[in-house]
Hints:
Layout: E1 15-17, E2 21-23, H1 25-37, H2 45-56, H3 71-77
Antiparallel strand pairs: 1-2
Amino acid sequence: xSCLRKDCNSIMCDTYVNSAGYICNYCKSExxxxxxxxxxxxxxxxxxxxEIEKFMVTPKDSYIDGNETSIDEFFKERSR
Length: 80
């Protein structure tokens, strides 16, 4: 019952997806962020499953790691 997402160590997961395995609540939330940031809007079970399979091989915290910004803003905030 451990989350099978790459780099996730969560245990005691309640959600199981046949082709992807167990997924924890944290990763489920991050999956929603992944869909939003990638501009994806799957509508069928098959489409959702396909996206979960892709998502599960991404490292944990790949999509929840700060606010979205542009490259120029990133450098501007770090320049004198």
